Amino acid sequence: MIPSISVIVPVYNVERYIDECIKSICASTLKNIEILLIDDGATDSSGQKCDKWAKKDNRIKVFHKTNGGLSDARNFGIEHAQGEFISFVDSDDKIHSEMLAKLYDVCNENKIKVSICDLFLWNTDKNIPVYDLSNSRTHQEIDYYHFSGMYHNIACRKLYHQSIFKNKNIRFPFGILHEDIGFWWMVMSQIDSIGVVNEPLYYYRQTNPFSISKIKDIQRHSSDSISSFYYGLKNIYKCLPPLKKDIYLDAFLQRYMEFADIECITPLANKQHKELLKLLKYTAIRSSHSQLKENFFKQIYIPYVVPLISIKFFKNANKVYLNTSLKIFGIKVIEISVGEV
Predict the structure, then answer these.
(1) Residues 145 and 283 in one domain
(2) Cβ-contact 103, 87 below 8 angstroms
(3) pTM, 2 dp
(4) What is the pLDDT of residues 107-126, one digit of tens each?
(5) Would 231 be classed as within a structural domain?
(6) 210 shares its domain with 225
(7) Handedness of CA 243, 244, 245, 250 (dihedral sign)
């Protein structure tokens, strides 16, 4: 029997938390699932604990691989998943016993490919519920701007139909923090509607000292956020459905301008930022958000005037003679070639 859901759990040095995580998934009221534990080269006892769980529950499959990072482990899980749907659970988090069943029912009842639930900001003392879905309907047209808020971006708390991943571009980017951002924008480009479960059913741990939120490198957070946005848009830009391209890009631009912090970024992120601005310039010009447009054109890399003429000197022109002649009149000759706006 094909599993209803493949639950993918990347595992790396979480010996303090992994038992609680796996136990919560095994207790799911939806029984027809497979649990893929991806041991990403853990150097503590996490891998051994996964093997012990596999002996207790035949729905568990353990994969031991060399360390490649969180994105690599998730992508590995996608390639090995057999379920109709896929869900991601981080190995220091846990889920409510009804989360998978309710997300699955919403998708099936409404014949949609993605569903999402509310979550808890979870620590050992208390649970803080985050109700950020703001709609009591279980099925709604996706609002790209609303569903790209802070906690909406995380890969967990959702269900994804397997068919989404037939597009090989829809994978997590390697080697950066905030990899979920670009991934989620790619997923959203593939769907028109989303299922909503207005209950906090995912427990998002806040007390793991090794989580990315504890990394204090501001430059890395800023740079990797830009890189993730860049990865998401570049991989999907050319195949955006024409009927929703303008709405999608407008929402993307709004979120990018809110998230992007260019005060302290790496040269690579700086380059990616410039490329994103070029891709989004036409969207900014047409946007009905006047403040967004104003902020966009304050960016030092983008001139407000849109080039309408492409000028290029003939390849066989004697540029040396031309330069010399025009310099007499104080004119500097440059070669301009303007591509697509």
Answers:
(1) no
(2) yes
(3) 0.85
(4) 999 999 999 999 999 887 77
(5) yes
(6) no
(7) positive
Q: How buried is residue 136: exposed, middle or buried, by Cβ count under 10 Å (0-12/13-18/19+)?
A: exposed
Residues 51 and 170 in one domain: yes
3-state secondary structure of 84: coil
- Indicate the residue type of 267: P
Residue 302 included in any domain: no
Q: Which residue has the tokens 């010399």?
A: 324
> Could you give the percent of the chain with pLDDT greater than 70?
84
User: Which structure tokens are listed for 224?
Assistant: 């990797």
- If one counts the domains in the chain, the total is 3
- Domain of residue 206 covers 5-215
Q: Inform me whether the pLDDT recorded for 208 exceeds 90.
A: no
Q: Which long-range contacts (CB under 8 A, 24 or more apart) does 312-315 make?
A: 312/336, 312/337
Q: Which one-letter amino acid corresponds to residue 44?
A: D
Q: How far apart are CA 206 and CA 31, in angstroms?
A: 28
| For the chain, counts of helices (H) and of strands (E) | 10, 10
**Cα distance between residue 173 and residue 179, in whole Å:** 6
Asked if the structure places residue 126 within a domain, the reply is yes
CA distance 58 to 49: 15
b (16+ CB within 10 A) / e for 68-98: bbbbbbbbbbbeebebbbbbbbbbbbbbbeb
d(CA 276, CA 297): 13
Copy the structure tokens of residue 271. Answer: 């380059």
